Amino acid sequence: MTDQSLDNADSARPNPGAMQLDLWLRRAEELRNSDAHQALALGEQAREEATRLGDVSRLARSLLNCGRTRWTLGDYGTARHNLHEALAITEEHPDAETQIRCLMNLGLVDMDQGHYVPASAHFLRALRLSRQAALPIREAGCLNNLGGVHEYLGDYSQATEYYLQALQVFEQHDDPLDRIIVRVNLGTTCQQLRRTSQALEYYRQAWQLALASNNKRYQGMAALYQGECYRELQQPEQALDSLEQALQLLRDTGYRKGEAQALSALGDWYLSQEASRAAFSHYTHALELAGTLEDQQLTVSVLIRSASALLHAGEADSALHALRRALSLAEKLSLTAESSEAHERLSRYWELREDYFQALAHYKAFHACQQQLFNDAQDKRTQTLLIQHEVEQIRQSAEEQRSLAEQLQEAHQELNRAFEHNQQLLEQASFHAHHDVLTGLPNRLHFDQLLQQAIAQAARQNEMFAVMLLDLDGFKGVNDSLGHQAGDELIAQVAQRFRSCLQRDDVVARFGGDEFTAIVHCLSSPHDAQRIAERLLAVLQAPFFIHGEHVLVGVSIGVSLFPRDGQDITTLTARADSAMYQIKRSHKGAVQIYSADQVIPESCTPRTP
């Protein structure tokens, strides 16, 4: 039965049931964020009536509505069941709009429970359908949700790019909810990047939009996030006001997961004010809600926090019980970060009680978790690349389909395509003139230009930045034993790891051979430069897989600081080179920050490109 035949059947039916169904569904959607329980009752009423009438189109929409509302209420299992039922109907009786919405909501349910692989699969499928059906709003929604996946994977740059692409589309349409959600997502990404003031501004914008549209659920969530920002900014009174407002709003709307999060955040606030009893009371209520929701990850998080409140109140035995329970549940769920935190706190607990055997055991387990987190970070970067590849394939597929529809106009567009091709060639030529072919990083010429810009900007804004010269240790042995192709592959992988360690505004460049250089902006002290350089050292500790072989290389890093060590390109690069030369002579695989008593040897004078 086609869409057209379904529409004809509905219009021919004199029974007013279809009109009543549409009214119930519209009202249920309006109430979903302000009175979720009433919305669910209307959705179920619509589902029963659609079943009685045999109206499969509206039955799918009713199931979709019920699934969305149950997700809002934290009933994930039933929500997923409703959404799969609706999806099956739309696949049998094609309805692109409803099918896309089912897929997107299934992805959101998976994301809420931390199932990011199936979530991304649902979003990618929805993205493909959105582009095939030329539905820009749905495409923007998919991009927004993919941004959430990349945010979890730690690829904040790509997440922000997806969010901003989505926001650009949403701003051109009337639905305030989309504009609210994407601003909340941009705020959480800024928080991850420690840009708290910028995050707070996004949350304020989201709160204003939610207030204007009477969306209490997102008004509550925006208030919750504002409270967390105020706490990070050391503004306790504003934090408490926002968190209490968030708790009341989320409680009124019946959004239980949000209520549990607000209770936990209030517990954190009271603990920061050394009010351990009040903190524990809020944590206890949050735990009760998390248990009702069967949200085990939230349970682990709150247990760890409640242990801090118990220790502060002098209830060591209860704190130990909470930590052991949190650790047991975290290990059962394979929550490595939470297991790591629990082991660390248990290690400190036993150390304070001079039980060094238990303290050491938990300390070793903590370090094992940290190594696993490092390995997981590598896996996440791989997942990011795979998802990007899939997105690019979807984009190319959509372009090919559009191209088939545009073949009749091909003759008229030939001159334009030729012009665009020439422009691309010019842009590629410009890119290759300023970038290293092997890694895609800036070359020496472009690095000097970027360094000159950094000097001018830092001088205007009275800021410190670092110039780092990075020389690989052990590269020649790999190149000699495995060949030049393996050496090239190793250089490319090293470049990716270096790039992943730095902020988006920072620069990594390749001078040639096994030499790299970096510009690291906005430093507060030389210690910041030392810390970031050590991060660059650490990222090479994991072996590389090259042509079937595991290989290890290290790096020696020389650092100079603007304006302390120089205020021009020649001096800064020479002094970074000098520091690197010193570390190469003494012992490889370390960091050396330039000091005035170093002598710049003749071999370390700036090299020409």
From TrEMBL:
Show me the TPR repeat boundaries. Answer: 140-173
Coiled coil in keyword set: yes
Q: CDD domains from the entry?
A: GGDEF (cd01949)
Q: Which domain of life is it from?
A: Bacteria
Signal peptide boundaries: none
| Pfam families named among the record's database cross-references | GGDEF (PF00990), TPR_12 (PF13424)
Write the record's keywords in alphabetical order, separated by commas.
Coiled coil, TPR repeat
Q: Where is the GGDEF domain?
A: 463-596
Q: Which InterPro entries match?
A: DGC-Regulatory_Protein, GGDEF_dom, Nucleotide_cyclase, Rev_trsase/Diguanyl_cyclase, TPR-like_helical_dom_sf, TPR_rpt
| Sections of the chain in a coiled coil | 391-428
Q: NCBIfam families this protein is in? A: GGDEF (TIGR00254)
According to UniProt, the name of this protein is Diguanylate cyclase (GGDEF) domain-containing protein
Instruction: Name the species this protein comes from.
Output: Deinococcus peraridilitoris (strain DSM 19664 / LMG 22246 / CIP 109416 / KR-200)
Top-down, what is the taxonomic lineage of the species of origin?
Bacteria, Thermotogati, Deinococcota, Deinococci, Deinococcales
